[in-house]
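Dear colleague,

As promised, here are the two records you asked about, laid out in our usual form so they can be pasted straight into your sheet.

NAME FIELD: protein one
SEQUENCE, THEN STRUCTURE:
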Amino acid sequence: MDQVRARLTVLFEEPFWIGLYEREANGRYEACRIVFGAEPKDYTVYQLLLERWNELHFSPGVEAVPSEERRKNPKRLQREARQATRSTGVGTMAQQALKLQQEQGKLERKDRSKRRREAEEQRQFDLRQEKRKEKHRGH
């Protein structure tokens, strides 16, 4: 049987409050960043998840690292996390997933603007060609 884990962490990231929604299912890890603005109340967060669930944009799934069931000492966890972020320099799994989502969005925007620019250039070219034909047609 597949296990599904989900976790929502609300934290203050200058200058806004954000929610980091993480889910792990079928061995895939996905993350979503929700910007709240002002400090959200519990009922606001709950209402947002209920009403706008379909609008959340999760990062592409990355291979999830199986987590250990045995609880570790919180101080040891903190020390290991600090060492891991120092040595790799790539951040947490959520940060990696969000970075991947950001890069994909950037590529999509770039592609969309390129298509829009090419369409405008084609329209201008067609207008020039039409104008030339009009000049040669004779009145």
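NAME FIELD: protein two
SEQUENCE, THEN STRUCTURE:
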Amino acid sequence: MNTTKVVYKGNLRTEATHIKSGDTLLTDAPIDNNGKGEAFSPTDLVATAALTCMITIMGISAEKNDFSMGEVSGEVKKVMTSGPRRIAELHIELDFQNHNLNETEKGLLEAAALSCPVTRSIHPEIMVNVKFNYS
């Protein structure tokens, strides 16, 4: 079964539908590439996929090892380059709050995040910098 159906809506916008759930999202070309920038760009989705994958894989690791991660959030900064236009860098910052993580658990979470399938699928020329903040 296919995963996603995408329809071009005009004006450099697409609508993607997750076939199994029916959830949808819009993409726009970014302002710096002839678009409106009113929704995620396709390269924003790559950056977002890396971050959401890391958090999901950490959640799986925490459940598997029977501990709580506390409250986890993150942000990602995407750096583009030209010639050819592509993602050059992803800077990911993960924040953990209201947790009781020991050093072993932190190590398990960090190893899980760094082994996420999305970041493993990113071309090796793309620098992926990850920072873990425990408050």
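A couple of things worth noting about protein two: The chain has two domains: 4-33, 42-134. The mean pLDDT is 97.

Best,
R.
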